[in-house]
Amino acid sequence: MRKILTATALAVVLIYGCIQGAMWQYDRYQVRHAKNALIIANVSKPALDEAQLNNLSDSRRAWRETEVTGSFITAKEILVRNRYHEGKYGFGVITLFKSKQGKFYWVDRGWVIAGKDALTPPTTKPVTEEKIQILARVRIENIENQVAGSVFAVPNGKDGKQLEKWNQTGSVTTQDFYLDLISTSDPQFDPEVPSTLPEISDGPHLAYSLQWLIFAFLVVLALFLVIREERKAQREKL
């Protein structure tokens, strides 16, 4: 009897863990599926102007293209580490952009390959502060939160959390979303390797969720076999 009780208690713990694992994976599946649906729904919509960009909710502007006129602020540019393209290590080039309406946007100008060693800075495509129009894709994530805790490198060689420093001093107050640059009215500023859309895939999360349920079923089956064998052994003793 004690063996049955011990096996049952262990089975309950394992089944609970399996169900929690299944629910966690299913939640991840739902989040990713909803994100994919939003991308598919919004990427084909017409480009937003700046007024529309700032008056729509996040769900209505996410992944949309937008056209904004203004100029880059070359003094406020950072390189974000750990970006890869076709298996090659490099940096994301993030430059501040001030629109004609006086709003500030962080603009991801794409990927550049790393230098030959850690002491060699990458070569970035320069921009000027002339007035241009940019075509970009809206990313509703706050880029400062995304890179929190990361190490930054700025073109002049200084390291530090420049985004946080600039905002803390009040010198920059940016929108709570950022822009992936697609092209500009001056082709010389177009990114050579622009940021791409995420892969439209629900990933393995639903399969993992079913896998956890199968594990729970196997635990139940194992418990059934233990109870059957234990009762059989008890009957043989009588």
Write a structural description:
The chain is α+β, with helices and mostly antiparallel strands and about 240 residues long. It folds into two domains: about 1-40 and about 200-235; about 65-190, no CATH class. It is about 40% helix and about 25% strand. It has six helices and six strands. β1 and β2 form a beta hairpin. The model is unreliable at about 150-155 and about 155-160 (pLDDT under 50).
The biggest sheet amounts to: 5 strands, mixed, barrel
How many H/I helices? 6
Tell me how many strands there are. 6
N- to C-terminal distance: 14 Å
Percent strand equals: 25-35%
| Integer-rounded radius of gyration | 27 Å
SSE string: HHHEEEEHEHEH
Q: What share of residues is helical? A: 40-55%
How many domains make up the 3D coordinates?
2
Integer average pLDDT: 85
Give me the side-by-side strand order of the main sheet. Answer: 1-2-3-6-4
Features:
single chain; 238 residues; alpha+beta; 6 helices; 6 strands
Quick gist of this model?
The chain has helices at residues 2-43, 50-55, 58-61, 143-146, 162-168, 205-237; strands spanning 65-85, 88-99, 104-113, 132-139, 152-153, 178-184. It is α+β, with helices and mostly antiparallel strands and 238 residues long.
